[in-house]
Structure formats: C-alpha cells, structure tokens
Automatic annotation (TrEMBL):
Its main location: cytoplasm. This is Proline--tRNA ligase. The keyword Cell membrane does not apply. Catalyzes the attachment of proline to tRNA(Pro) in a two-step reaction: proline is first activated by ATP to form Pro-AMP and then transferred to the acceptor end of tRNA(Pro). InterPro entries: aa-tRNA-synt_IIb, aa-tRNA-synth_II, aa-tRNA-synth_II/BPL/LPL, Anticodon-bd, Anticodon-bd_dom_sf, Pro-tRNA-ligase_IIa, Pro-tRNA-synth_IIa_bac-type, Pro-tRNA_synthetase. It comes from Siccirubricoccus soli. It comes from the Bacteria. Belongs to the class-II aminoacyl-tRNA synthetase family. ProS type 2 subfamily. It is found in: Cytoplasm. HAMAP family: Pro_tRNA_synth_type2. Homodimer. GO terms for molecular function: proline-tRNA ligase activity. It is an enzyme of class 6 (ligase).
C-alpha cells in the first residue's frame, strides 16, 4: 500500500479519554474510531490486524477439529426462554422488537442458538462428537465500557461449542480446546496462562480463563513461575492422541484468579517461584454438561437405543480484545511493536527523498518484494514525520532509504522490536526481512 493514497490517518494529540496504552495507541495510530460508547469502527490499519488475529484463531480451531459456521447476530427471545436465560441475563442483553412486535435480541453469546441448530440434525451417538464454532460480533450492554476495544459493548468473539456422548468425551473436547488456546495465543507472541475460574452466567462446573499478564489488567492473578517459561509451540500435538503431557503441565502448577485464589496452596509454593500480577482475560472455556441440551430438548439415541442428552462445553476468545491485549504486551513510548504474525504490514519502506531517482528506484524494489504486505511511505513529508509514524504504527521492519545510501546502493534496515539498525544492500535487506 502506498501511504500517499492510503486512508491511514494518525493523531498527533493523545486522546484525553484513553486511559491505557493500547487504547491511546489504537486511536493515535488510526486503527479504530469510536462511534458511540463501547462501539468502534475498524479503520484499515486496525482491520488488517483484526483479520490476522482472526485467521490465527481460525487455523488453530480447524487444526483441533472444530468446524466453522456463521450464526446470526440477532436471535429470538423465545430461544432464550427455553434455557431460562432470557430473564436471568439482565440488563447486559440488548433487547429489540421487530415490526410485528416480536421480541428479539442482539446475541451476547450463542449456546441456545447452536443447541437449537444441532438439534435439527443430530439423531444418534454416531453424530457425536462435534465441535462447531463461529467468529461473530456480539453485543453486551456493559455498565462501564472502557479501555477501548478491551471492554467494548460490541465486540468480535470466537465461540465454539462441543457436543459429546458422555463425560469422558466432553473432557477430551475440553482438553483439545485447552491446547488449541495455548497454541493460538503463543502464535500471536502472547504468554497466556490458563487459570481456574468461576463459571459465571454461562453455567457449569469446570472452567478456565486464559489471561496474559499486563499492568493494566482488570484481574489480580497468582501463578507459579514455571508457567511463564513453557514453550507450547515446541511441543508436538496430536489432537486425537494423548494431550496429557501439555494439559497436565499446566493444570498441575498453581494458577488462579482472585476469586479462586487458595491461600494455603499459594503459600506452599517457594516464595521465589510465586508470581502475583495483573491479568487481561483473552479467552474463557467452560464445560457445562447437559445444561443446555437438557433444557432445550436436544437428545440423540445412544448405543443402547435410549435417548441421551449430549454433554456440552463452550469456548470463547475475545478476538477484538486480543488486538488491544497484544498492544498492551508490545509497545514502548514511541508506539506499537507488532509481533510479525499479526502486524498490519511486515515492512514499512521509508523513502526520505521522494522524487529522487535513486531513492525512488531502491524504495520501489523493496516495496515490490513484499507488497501487499508492505507499506510504502511515499509522501512528500519530512524524514522525522515518517520515522515517528512508522514507530507509532509499529511495523516489525523499517527500510530507510536516503539519497546518500541510495547512491551506494544501500538501505538502512531497522527492527522495531529492538531498535537495532544495519546498513545492507537491497538484496540482503530483502533476505533479512524474509528470514524474519
Ligand atoms: N459463550 C462463552 C464462551 S463461547 C462466553 O461467552 N464466554 S465469555 O463471556 O467469557 O466471553 C468470551 C471472551 O470474550 C472473553 O474471554 C473475552 O476475551 C471476550 N469478551 C467478553 N466480554 C467482552 C467485552 N465486553 N469486550 C471485549 N471482549 C469481551
């Protein structure tokens, strides 16, 4: 993308309403624009990141055996009356009426709808296990929407729902999602820690929240230091095989949010191994048995011919929240430092003398080598403005091309994460960026 023709607006002033770094930087870098409280439009820079985050989530869900569908945002109140949650959900639910005066709602989550859909097809135990997910906008009328996309009212969620014949099957599905989550967040450069959690309004009796550590986190968390050193991406995963080596490692060491904190277990850990910090919840998984299948009349015929209500679980990831969380974990005083996997562009080419035959030629070659995953700053702007914008928007690599270097066939390559700079020929610079 050529910056001179792109809609990539930045703000010079720090917006007063933004209290945390990610919110400030998302507004300053022109990633999102608030359209009303807790509701955001995603501008090109933010939208590119959101799509990359979404794609990693999708790939890991698919790898774990879940299948993607797309359910609507609008649901009927009747569906929620069947599970008993229509009244229970309270003022967080946005309730609407259609022209026929029928009660509708903007979905805050989809347990009821997916159960109803699955019920239309599943007949026997041979239709199990299945795991269906979608990536869809949700609405929750939060009392205090804040921190930008971190706690929005409209937000993008990946929600998956598993159906199994029995408890053992449901545990297997739960463990598959547990491992898929660890991999998903690790691919985005995040260290997410699964923690025992309360199940809240989703119901059920087993749940883990996945949190990343950040000073601005909304919850207090306590964990064993070992958990921060584990590299899940180096472990082979066979989703149909034994996941114990990974799951047992995580569940055998202490990690809990405030509500589930067990002081005795905590104090049994040597002091040097204890980490107490703030955390941001980016995912939440639940096992809830037959809560929805039983209340909504979903049964299949079991191996003995008798009807059984499938055991279910649901598994959420805050896709739009993740964009903010990734920034909380990757920024400095100059701006964002995107991990490569989710960067809006891998490389920014900064032409310091637009219109100079030498710089134009070199910049053009570098840009072509990485387009469309490169941004070409071809504006008639001062070098300082180009440097500041590239740092703010956080591209992992910057290729800086000035007339003196260009005359010698050289570009300066800067790595945003470390600030490290090297002077290289165009070919070497291309090879270096490709190597990552
Ligand atoms: N049905 C279950 C799982 S599919 C569910 O709704 N779980 S949840 O309530 O925990 O939400 C899943 C994830 O969505 C959370 O872990 C969080 O990352 C994200 N999320 C929840 N509320 C918001 C919000 N107001 N703004 C942004 N993200 C949110």
């Amino acid at each position: 993308m050529r910056l001179s023709r792109a809609f990539l607006p930045t703000l010079k002033e720090t917006p007063a309403e933004a209290q945390i770094a990610s919110h400030r930087l998302m507004l300053r870098a022109g990633m999102v624009r608030q359209t009303s409280a807790g509701i955001y439009a995603w501008l090109p820079l933010g939208w590119r990141v959101l799509q990359k985050v979404e794609q990693i989530v999708r790939e890991e869900q698919d790898a774990a055996g879940a299948q993607e569908i797309l359910m609507p945002t609008i649901q009927t109140a009747d569906l929620w009356r069947q599970s008993g949650r229509y009244d229970a959900y309270g003022p967080e639910m946005l309730r609407l009426k259609d022209r026929h005066d029928r009660e509708m709602l903007y979905g805050p989550t989809n347990e009821e709808m997916v159960t109803e859909i699955f019920k239309g097809y599943a007949k026997s135990y041979r239709d199990l296990p299945r795991n269906l997910y979608h990536i869809q906008w949700k609405f929750r009328d939060e009392v205090r929407p804040r921190f930008g996309v971190m706690r929005g009212r409209e937000f993008l969620m990946k929600d998956a729902y598993s159906f199994d014949l029995d408890y053992a099957g449901a545990q297997k599905s739960y463990r598959q999602m547990f491992v898929a989550y660890l991999r998903t967040f690790a691919r985005m450069g995040l260290k997410a820690i699964p923690m025992q959690a309360d199940t809240g309004p989703i119901g059920g009796n087993l749940s883990h929240e996945f949190l990343i550590l950040a000073e601005t986190g909304e919850s207090q968390v306590f964990l064993h230091k070992d958990l921060l050193d584990f590299d899940v991406l180096s472990q082979p995963v066979d989703y149909d095989g034994d996941l114990s080596p990974i799951v047992d490692f995580w569940t055998s060491r202490y990690a809990a949010t405030d509500e589930k904190h067990d002081l005795a277990a905590w104090e049994a850990i040597p002091e040097a191994q204890r980490v107490s910090a703030r955390g941001i919840e980016i995912g939440h998984i639940f096992y809830f048995g037959t809560k929805y299948s039983a209340s909504m009349g979903l049964t299949v015929s079991g191996p003995d011919g008798k009807p059984v209500a499938p055991e279910m679980g649901s598994y959420g990831i805050g896709v739009s929240r993740l964009v903010g969380a990734i920034i909380e974990a990757n920024h400095d005083e100059n701006g964002i430092r995107w991990p490569e996997a989710v960067a809006p562009f891998k490389l920014a080419v900064l032409n310091l003398k637009q219109g100079d035959a030498g710089t134009d030629a070199l910049a053009g070659r570098l840009y072509e080598a990485f387009a469309p995953d490169a941004l070409y700053d071809d504006r008639e702007e001062r070098a300082g403005v180009k440097f500041a914008d590239a740092d703010l928007m956080g591209y992992p690599w910057q290729a800086i091309i000035g007339p003196r270097g260009a005359a010698a066939g050289k570009v300066e390559l800067k790595r945003r994460a470390t600030g490290e700079r090297v002077e290289l020929s165009v070919e070497d610079a291309i090879a270096r960026v490709k190597a990552g």
